[in-house]
Amino acid sequence: MAILEIKDLDVRFATPDGDVHAVNKVNLDIGAGECLGVVGESGSGKSQLFLATLGLLSTNGRATGSVKYRDKEILGVPPDALNKLRGSKITMIFQDPLTCLTPHMRIGAQIMESLRIHERLPKDEAEKRALEVLEMVRMPDGPRRMKQYPHELSGGMRQRVMIAMAVVCGPDLLIADEPTTALDVTVQADILDIMRDLKAELGTSIVMISHDMGVIAGIADRVAVMRDGEIVEAGPVDDIYYRPQHSYTKALLDAMPRIDRPEHDAEGAPGGETILNVNDLEVRFSIADDAWHSRELRAVDGVSFSLRQGETLGIVGESGCGKSTLARAVLKLLPETPGTVLWLGRDLAKLRPGELRKSREDFQIVFQDPLASLDPRMTIGESIAEPLRALRPYLPKSEIVARTRKMMEQVGLDPHWINRYPHEFSGGQNQRAGIARAMIVEPRLVICDEAVSALDASIQAQIVELLIRLQRETGMSLIFISHDLSVVRHLCHRVMVLFLGRIVELAGRDALYADPRHPYTKALLAAVPVPDPKHEREKTYVRRTGELPSPLDTRSQLIFLKSKMIDDPAAEQYRPQLLEVAPGHFVAEHDPVT
Amino acid sequence: MMANGITGDVSAVMRKAQDVQGRSLWSDARRRLLRNRAAVLGVVVLGFIAMMAVFAPLLSQYAYDAQDYTLISCAPNWWHSAMACNAGGTHWFGTDNLGRDLFVRVLYGARVSLSVGLVATLVSLVIGIAYGAIAGYFGGRIDALMMRVVDVLYALPFIFLVIILMVVFHRSFYLLFVAIGAIEWLTMARIVRGQTLSIKQKEFVEAARAGGVGTFHIILRHIVPNVLGPVVVYVTLTIPAVILAESFLSFLGLGIQEPLTSWGVLIADGKEQMETAPWMLLFPAAFMAITLFCFNFIGDGLRDALDPKDR
Fold first, then answer.
1. What ipTM, to 2 d.p.?
2. CA A501 centroid distance within chain
3. Structure pTM?
4. Which of A88, A105, A278, B250 shows its CA 20 to 30 Å from the CA of A523?
């Protein structure tokens, strides 16, 4: 029997620029104990579909059609009646767990809130139930957690709290809207595993909304593919993945970067001259404890590597591992740092400010958020031309404009758009503009800091293709920073894995993906979801509990080398050495894996 | 409909021929502002008052300082009659206790009050943006030093400062600009600094630095245009504050000197005659209140127009 039946659901938004048709006559059933995956790219209406189902549309939205929960109409029902369902029988979790938790309330109180409202449980009983669900979502140390505030928890822990809140009343249906998108891969794997267990233990139906075919493959029984507010294809998970009928589904599957299959044949690292030499680079931030005392946070802690002309180096690691800080330190965008950065044999730290500014035409950066990295008050053309104007002020204006147009064409932007503003473009187009800005001074090195992470998979693939093409045309070197190991596999010659500011493994692409040596690299690789349901089902999962190690605690860096760890959070610890296990394959010392 | 169809075709043709003209954030904001009824009404009324002030000498047959002792404290009158009060002509707003026409004096008062408001605000705007943007962008010790200077100036009592200025130099119209501007830029600098601190964290500033753009150009091209939004809103709130400050100083007798007048002076005078000649208080007070209302409406409208997400 279907728990939720959606019939002819239509959602429209009235905006000043006219009506937006977000969801177009969608029909969908969700059976008891079933997990339905809903995939689609941003703007496909997948979130609005379920917000409308629960009557949570913003005020300018209007939903028509029918939504039946256990044969009772719930669309257009007054909020009072809906509130009896929402939060108890049908619950929802969202992408950003921090904004969904009330900052001033303790975790325990927030979990118990819905119990006390919906089930009118006395306090001690509610507390018992809350502890039980915390156990279920694998939050160790429940009684202490109950007394903590949301800001004291990491992203993964917060998302566990959200799930605990969602399941505490024993719902029939849990709607999860991109619950793991903001999380690191290893944490994502934990959360997905928790949700799989909940489904098995409680028999709760789950709707999993995601843009990531890999995430859906691992959890869904049935899949619905959405595009432009319509469901283009729906069916059992194996049919969708192995026998897709609709061309859009095929395109989505093709666009997903696959960690299990390299897309490009392995070209060896080009043998150009070494252009960049980074030696023992350190970046420290001081974190104030109170007005007088501060502690040191080592964001980057003794990183050395080199880069050849025409080579692409991937830097991967989870959030907080210092990969973006490393990029900024290499580009000298941070104040003085210990360690040396040699560019073509010259120490960048020894350059005078004017010389440093001049040498910037050799190395440029592309940022993660395409919209934020473009000045909203400047036209695209002005933004792209800016480095040129700053670094080659002697060029006549007509020449600058001509080069800007040519560059726009090269990155696939219509040169006629030169006078448009960033807010008139899509994310992918803005990222092309960001790449054009970096490329216009013909740099020899471009650092891409999570340059494709904010984009949809199909756009991601296009941008990666663009970067590969530009690299072939210009022979530039790339440093490609990403948390996404699949994308990195796509275009990098060598890959460096960072953990808490230190290199744990550095190797050629094929060596790293085929033969990872360090336990952290292995864990990262195992956690990446693959858009292949069979592979995901058979994957053995390493269950982890507890918090990620804090970078302020010097012991954290040695969690893979516990034999040498000194048990004092402030002590100066042993530094694991990088050992060359095979030619060009470096691995940090670690305890033997059991 | 027909006309729309044609212009649509024309623009499609134009697009092929030449570059697409983008919609800047400013033009978006202007469009939103023009849709805000209260703000547009504010602009219209304010414009009307400003025009009256500019053309004051042409609007009345009386001079602002001409006294007529036969016409002391005449009530407002709009048409000729045999009564003594309007034998020589009508006094729309009546006359004051020295026999001067109140209508022309209110308009002359508007000249002073509005120009003090605009000039002092402009002065505070220029100093405040430059000071705040520099302090905010450089940060660290420079910022700390510059902002402590602001704190010290803040701590000086405003009235005391003005009295000293008035005593050391002679009382003058321009000194009033200086005195008020010298206070108002402090707040402006703080606001600009705060905005700068958040804008310099934005990726586009880092992108400009990575692109080799110099510090001066970053402040001028990236920081200032982006702080202008909130600053413009604050300006519309500063102008009324300055007008009120001027009125307050004049009310205390520290501001404009007779026979020149401002709304503050007129209100102070009117207060004395409130029981016998209430129009002397009501007219200048009404003008001032309407002006302040207009500025507040415009400020609200600008805020919504520049920051549509935060509404």
1. 0.76
2. 19
3. 0.79
4. A278
